[in-house]
Amino acid sequence: MTQELHIIGGGMAGSEAAWQAANAGIKVVIHEMRPKVETFAHRTGNLAEMVCSNSFRSDDNEQNAVGLLHWEMRQANGIIMQMAAKHRLPAGGALAVDRDPFAESVTAALMAHENISVSYEELTELPDEGHWIIATGPLTSAALGQAIAKETGAESLAFFDAIAPIVYFDSVNMDIAWMQSRYDKGETEEERTAYLNCPMTKDQYQAFIDALLAADKTEFHEGETAGYFDGCLPIEVMSERGRETLRFGPMKPVGLTNANDPENKPYAVVQLRRDNALGTLFNIVGFQTKMKYGAQKEVFRMIPGLENAEFARLGGIHRNTFLNSPTLLDNQMRLKSRPNIRFAGQVTGVEGYVESAAMGLLAGRLAAAEIQGRVIPDVPHTTAMGALVTHITGGADAKTFQPMNVNFGLFPPLDGIRGGRKGRKERYKGYTDRAKEDFAQWLEAQT
After folding, report:
1. pLDDT, mean of each 10-residue run, the chain (447 residues)
2. Does 302 carry a binding-site annotation?
3. Would you say 314 and 288 are in contact if contact means Cβ atoms under 8 Å apart?
4. Nearest Cα to 434, choosing from 405, 418, 409, 413?
5. 10 annotated as ligand-binding
6. Which residues contact 204 (CB under 8 A, 6 or more apart)?
7. Threshold 0.70, pTM exceeds
8. Is 73 one of the annotated binding-site residues?
9. Is 13 annotated as a binding residue?
10. What are the beta bridge partners of residue 167?
11. Pairing of strands 268-274, 195-200
12. Is residue 11 a known part of a binding site?
């Protein structure tokens, strides 16, 4: 048992951790409670199921930190990026995937690996011996969550993550809506027309905001508080912060020209992104919501072009749990009080599919090296992966620790490159050039 690696959770982080350790020659057992034990957000028993958006966000590895993280994971032979490429959908400069075939492909690849087995059960206690990675994500089961809280001596931290609705394309009125990526981004015509756009006049926008504010919302359970992650705010919460907030956020009209009425600039635009390869499903970008189902249909059908919309999935809200990692984890991602256990993924306080998978990638490599008696050098904090793990294992202020996406603000400053908005393009290219060189050297040191 001591030479096996056990991974609790088969999401993005657990799947990537298993792949990395198995390719290093370690026998891996993935313990996944689904489909025997269901969650609010999951629909299948597939590994690496995408429960919220179908986007891995920007794929620009020169000017964007998440695109750089994509690059690093590809260099490290990551299974998540491999299958994302295989099932990629047009999305302008973003990396979006056909979610069901993506998860099915990840599952098939892991199940076919000679060093990987999957055990379908719910584990409710922390293991006393053996090598373990806990990658249970934001929907850690109540029993295991209680065991973690008991061990760490801290009350579990939580925020709420909201899921955006998905619309059937054939129910969209294309006499009003049109296809275009913002600023016509993309190398092909398919990429440049990857998004479905629904325009609003000022009066329509104001009526929409009124309806959002008045709609019935999901009630919280006793003792729960709405500590939302800012990168995934429900649209009602954003509208409560100011009537123009949405127009400068997910409904901004810039970079778009209404193909049905090019002379009139929309006051606001709702964008929908393709959700499957057939192009039959589109998710409403940035429209995470905690409105009740009946209210969602009424409010979203106020959007021009969606007046007769049919929904494959309505939005929802669920509790996300995460550790106060700066106080609980060491720089090897091990629980300080039980160093036989590592944590990975969103439960560590990173936010996003890519960030979660990247922490799984790192945890899998670290665990494999420990089992084999090898020492892996610390991933350079000048890299996207290194900046993230440094942040969660000590770089962040434990008193105010909240989930974080990868961003250039986590990177060490560059010498000789000016700050400020005007120097941003040169600065970001400097960050990514330095990171690529340092990450390549880190991988080379492991061969």
Report:
1. 85 97 97 72 78 90 97 98 96 93 97 96 90 87 83 69 85 97 92 95 98 87 60 86 95 96 97 88 91 95 97 80 90 95 94 96 98 95 96 86 87 79 86 98 95
2. no
3. no
4. 413
5. yes
6. 267, 268, 302, 304
7. yes
8. no
9. yes
10. 282, 311
11. antiparallel
12. yes
Closest to 12 measured CA to CA, from 385, 390, 346: 346
Task: Note the residue count of the chain.
Answer: 447
Identity of the amino acid at 130: G
Nearest alpha-carbon partner for 446 in 358, 371, 379, 357: 379
The candidate with the shortest Cα–Cα distance to 200, out of 271, 259, 268, is: 268
> What residue ranges define each of the domains in the chain, with the CATH number in brackets?
4-158+323-444 (3.50.50.60), 165-314 (2.40.30.260)
The answer, yes or no, to whether the previous bond of 412 is cis (omega within 30 of 0) is: no
Tokens 């990675």: give the residue.
133
Residues 360 and 136 sit within 8 Å (Cβ to Cβ): no
pLDDT one-digit tens code per residue, 391-427 = 999 888 887 787 888 999 899 989 877 666 668 899 9
Residue 419, marked binder: no
Q: Rounded to an integer, what distance in angstroms lies between the CA atom of residue 312 and that of residue 169?
A: 10
